[in-house]
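Good morning C.,

I know you're traveling, so I'll keep this short. The sequence:
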Amino acid sequence: MTALTLSTAAAPGLRADAIVIGVAKGAQGPVVAPGAEAVDKAYDGKLAGVLETLGASGAEGELTKLPAPAGFKAPLVVAVGLGAQPDDKNAEDGYDAEVLRKAAGVAARALAGSKKAAFALPVDGPGAIGAIGEGVLLGAYSFDVYKGGAQDAKNAKNAKAKNGKAPLGEAALLGGKPRDAAHKGALARATAVSEELNRARDLINMPPNDLTPAIFAGLAQTAAKEHGIKVQVLDDKALTKGGYGGILGVGGGSAATPRLVKLSYTHPKADKHLAFVGKGITYDSGGISLKPAGHNETMKCDMSGAAAVFAAVVSAARLGLEVNVTGWLALAENMPSGSAVRPGDVLRMYSGKTVEVLNTDAEGRLVLADALWAASQENPDAIVDVATLTGAMMLALGSRTFGVMANDDAFRSAVHEAAEEVGEPAWPMPLPEHLRKGMESPVADIANMGERWGGGLVAGLFLREFVGEGITWAHLDIAGPAFNESGPFGYTPKGGTGSAVRTLVRLAELTAEGDLG
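The tokens, ready to paste straight into the viewer:
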């Protein structure tokens, strides 16, 4: 990954391949943002005019390259748009963290192939340092394991050098204070969370033939050992003995047998316990209810929820958060075969409830149901599940926003606010009681399908049935933002995005700080 450093050096004398500055959209044209004063001075205070001549307006995400002025050791200036000036938005605290995060991401991606760049973006405190650091690390991300003849992840860097441009090597954040504890802490947090988020992206981008439930479980065991996390893996035999009918039913059609992975991070001073539950369908063909052509090519991403939970638990451990966090990864491959669950079958779940399967492509809720009930047995203070669950949520909220449902309005609001705080677009959604009736079954306690309209809400109501009584719970349907099929934007790459990782980490931080219920 790109190395991050804090620097108090002046831009003109810094040896680098490029100097990154911010340019805002002012009322009369582009305006050079704070942090770039030395660069502007070298252009005799006319940098804004030069940028305008080159077509720059300061619009968010816009990128303009120009030769560095005489006397600079870096040959290139990269101006990235920040959008409207804070004054134009009635802001009092400088540029919004998400604006800085996106700008840094755009620049880092544009500087692929460079060894070092200096980021002279606006810095008004540790929050800005953290945002810029995250933007750089997330924006510089690339997935190259299968390119240029690489045999494994260790050789991906060399393969990329043969096949294209390697990610930006180093980013020096100007305005950062190397000896300031708050600045160092912000950079350390950005590094830990971004590295784990990028680990989640790697998992999501892996082809399903190389990421079966067993392989995913093995990777989780390796990471757990490295970071002092307890891990328990239930294989198909243990799942059968335990009565996990949902996970076994979904995974029964595949030669790659299912797993339930429990990751436990504990802190000796913690008095709160969060449980995160992730849907981990390593490939979703739809099962007997087979998906049509055009709908299954990206279904390797159906384990994005489990990847997010995995990354969040490891992040909590790396940050040493004073809260106990348990992650449950419900891993299975949904395939059609003679042993696959059929429409009309009835599954007896881990909770003891029976479910009539009307559509085998509504499989995520079945594996989550078992994992939710398992998590409930430990009586945590709250449970949050994350899943690429329904196409209906994409129809409702589009491809960049995830839905938040909960059995407690205050908790739903808290989760929504945490997501928005870290720059993950989310929207609170209801759980209308009248939709529950559509899941009534003549042969079982509940069916896995209900009314067609409001399908994302129906799925949330189904999951609620498997949360222990009195336990606060929220459900994040990340079907839209989990996998980006269009071009990259901001710090978001094409492919796996790592959606919800930062929201979960923030929830853990808030709980550790005593600010979440």
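Safe travels,
E.
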